[in-house]
Fold:
Amino acid sequence: MKRTLAFCSTAAIGTLIAVAASAQSPALPTPKVEEVMVKVALLTLNDANLTGNYNVLYAKMAKPFRERFSADTLKQAFKSFAGRHIDTIAGMPTIPTEDPAIDSDGSLLLRGYFDTTPSRLSYELDYAMSEGEWKLITIDVKVRATSSSASATDLVARATADVTRMQGRK
Structure:
């Protein structure tokens, strides 16, 4: 009887540890959800670039980003995109350049591009679990000409919070 009780207790503790571990490291979203996350982030950036109002994009950023930066920081980071449309991506598929992954800090990494010929819109989006959902912590966007003879100006912008350093302060 004592062995059975001890075994049941050990099994119950093992199950609790497994459940706690899975709660700490969320699973990757489905490919469809990942595509929606990418498009929502970039279309929100598009709206901010066209209106000059970065408050909505700022509100969608993870709490560590918002604690460190302001909406004006986003505006400055993306000033080269001001007034430029990147909304053509809405009906296009994402083309991943790397498999989605969760890094050692727990950030969800989404990398890819949209074939927006004659240019290419590339993105590197990092999401942190914040306030119970995946929220942007880094947004890195590039629009580059795909042909070497093109005279289009490359647009490159990045806004990021150093999550590791922010977590170390708390």
Remarks:
- The two ends are 47 Å apart (CA to CA).
- The longest strand covers residues 133-145.
